[in-house]
Amino acid sequence: MRKKTAGLILAGLFAAALFIGGCGGNKQSSANADREARVVHVGYYGGTCEAPIYVAHEQGVFKKNGLTVELVKLTAATTKEGIATGKVDAVMMSPGGFKAMEQGLNIKLTAGIHTGCIQAVVPVDSPVRSIADLKGRTVGVDAIGGPPMIYLGMEMIRLGIDPKTEVNWQAYPGPQLSLAMAKKEIDAFSTWDPFPQIAVNEGKARAFFSNTHSAPYADQLCCYVGINGRVVSNEPDIAKALTRSFAEATKWVGEHPAEAAQISIDKKYTGGDVALNSALLAQYRWIADPLQARASYTYFLNGMKQLQVLDAATEVDALVGHTFVVLEE
Description:
five-stranded mixed β-sheet, about 15% strand, D-Maltodextrin-Binding Protein, domain 2, three-stranded antiparallel β-sheet
């Protein structure tokens, strides 16, 4: 009788264990199903350096990590609106978005992506040989206060030039900067790849600065994984899956720049041509490491504060602590 009772008890415990285990599995399956059913909106601008987004979407990296992703074409203005309204869940962030983050834009940086992607050029016969020669000249950029202006401004301050009073800045759409320089409306221009390199390849310009090769900027990451703060707080599994997807795609682009360029052109995400974009992607260093990303983020915030782009009262370490999140798997 005792043996029979013991057997029944053990059978009951075994059945309960199966039931509990089954419940856990069902919950996990349900969570995965919910995550896949949720459409995640990833924004992009159409830049050469956004190749990890294109690759993650076209090569199934997002899907492999349990995400159903829709890509959304953005501008600087629609990015802010999209993050604020929850219509954009993730985007590649550059120093151009750091001022908005200081002002409260609810986006968190979670990892790095790459170095490089901005160049400054002058006409081939220009006397300008370095940033020091820009004093008293007119420089074209794609946006006042944007990353190309920030990079040049940081270097000007290092050289003792006041970028606010000793240089004249003019903003043009990126594709129009080369024409503005040819018409002598500006003496030089700085913007995102591929536009400066196109001007160089066409024999219209000569590069004198790039954050791909010029020290100390070549060692700093310029683009980062940015995730809507609501997602980080309320949907941490999605935030982790996005960060993981970016990291995997970033590594893949670094190892397969030609294939990444082909995807970018074939799917009409960006301009230029395959050979040009492949050469540019091969020059960048693709680094997802969150600790290195955090250090570069801090570096640029300090530079932007020195440029007076950030408020004088802003405490950089506090801002970093609030806006950079390392997501533990």
